[in-house]
């Protein structure tokens, strides 16, 4: 499969802060990719660099095989919907839609009208007076109706209730199947979007800690829990992503696969083996420091 976007050793520094640190990654063409990580992990910075809204300190970046900065033909292929999307103070819904349409060669007014109706966005209210959820809905309308070959959504669901989020997921999936394109979703609602994602890229402190197909990723990790005295020897020699200990009990998330014999030995030792959700996996990659601070729990990683 070809890549719509490729980066090599991409770095972005802001004075003493390294927002992206030597990132080498690719986004496959006509694939829905989840860009995951904690706040401050570098997700928005990466999307801003790709869409030429910021410049890298060093490294290489190619979109459709070309550098995007000041390349009108490449920029017209992309749509970036930010979580804090801004509009002129006097703009109403119609103004925003008409402006977006000018820059979207593949614009679908039919899809825009459908989404406006489904989200019940008021047409006569100035956008600056819309609720947080309605503002997010406007961004979703523009992002999906643009049908840009490469579309980025940065936390697109803020303020949306469960029904509205379900509408977004259903319409996105339907329209993606009818009109394949490269879609990148930056999200914290990983469990909700699980069914949409084909690939995931996980960032932590500006670095890529995971880049894989969702299905292969599911089969390459597992959870294990039990008494510390049984779990500790079981984990020896394995790649432990995270480990949590409370009193005499412990849980761990481990990279790798287990043979039938290893599974039987784990059960005989009183250990419970479980599947790991995508949300749990992202948390395990050093993204959930709450473990370290809550209920006397302790989290540790092992790169062996």
Name its key features.
single chain; alpha/beta; globular; 304 residues; Alpha-Beta Plaits; Rossmann fold; disordered C terminus; six-stranded mixed beta sheet; five-stranded antiparallel beta sheet
SSE blueprint and pairings:
Layout: E1 3-14, E2 17-28, E3 32-36, H1 43-50, E4 58-63, H2 72-75, E5 78-81, H3 93-102, H4 109-119, H5 132-145, E6 150-154, H6 162-178, E7 182-186, H7 190-193, E8 199-204, E9 207-213, H8 214-218, E10 221-227, H9 228-235, E11 239-246, E12 249-255, H10 260-268, E13 272-274, H11 278-287, H12 290-293, E14 298-300
Parallel strand pairs: 3-7, 3-8, 5-6, 6-7
Antiparallel strand pairs: 1-2, 1-4, 8-9, 10-12, 10-13, 11-12, 11-14
Report on this model:
This protein starts with a strand and ends with a strand. The protein is built from 12 helices and 14 strands. Strands 5-6-7-3-8-9 form a 6-stranded mixed β-sheet, sandwiched between helices. A 5-stranded antiparallel β-sheet has the order 13-10-12-11-14, with helices on both faces. The longest helix is centred in the middle third of the chain and has 17 residues. With 304 residues, it is α/β, with parallel strands linked by helices. The radius of gyration is 22 Å and the shape is globular.
